[in-house]
Amino acid sequence: MKTLVVGATGLVGQEICRLLRETGRPVHALVRRTSDQAKRAALEKLGVETVEADLKDPASLARACAGVQSVVSTASSTLSRQSGDSIESVDQEGQLSLVDAARKAGVEYFVFVSFRDNPRIQFPLSVAKRAVERALKASGMAYTILQASYFMEVWLTPALGFDAGNGKVRIYGDGSRPISWISYRDVARAAAAAVSQPAARNMVVEIGGPQALSPREVVRMFEAAGAGEIATESVPESALESQMGAATDSLQKSFAGLMLMYAAGDAIDVSVGSRLFPFQMTSVRDFITAQLVRA
Question: pTM of the entire structure?
Fold first, then answer.
């Protein structure tokens, strides 16, 4: 039972490949000719067979899906992009082409990593995710759509202004609304487990960490764990709305939209996800401890 992982050189995709190989499952990883050679070598070291294709090239996707029973897709242009990549060309049209290629190749099962919808806050990435979800539901293939909350390793790090180690944190909105922060490793564990979990088929599953906490609560936890006093800078929702309205690039507009969704809160009912994927998820406290040890 071969599984094709799309987005295999990314954070979540690489981890999915590792987990699937640990179970002995044959894994193909979609890589581009221009993909980082070190990441390709790391995949091959795991025993993963790399397949050159590109979401912007439908013919290559047809070849990549041939002989494959399941597809797991985490690919996105948000954190890693090359020439010609955009939300429209990769996250929307590229993923729709992948769904179509998988259907035509007779793929039995498709796992798609997404995030929850907020009807009040729409932007190019959310539009793309919803379009792919609709296509999957109409494809005739069995599917699992994992709607994950905010990744701790992205949103609680200096990359997005959350620099607790240096005593300065940026939060979006007033920071009072809880979010079900999750580790990308746990999203990968759920995606890998879904491949062999019949009960998860034809379901949209919301997954988040074990405790929903507001950004300000996370700041206080960092301080209590030994980070020292942290100065917080709040970006008002009105400023984020203006930023999204003024953005001319779909990626900039999407990041502003994601920040607005963060400001609105993303507390998830994790009961269904916990039943389907009954493993211990990383807590915010565990994440904080690891961050401070590294610092």
Answer: 0.96
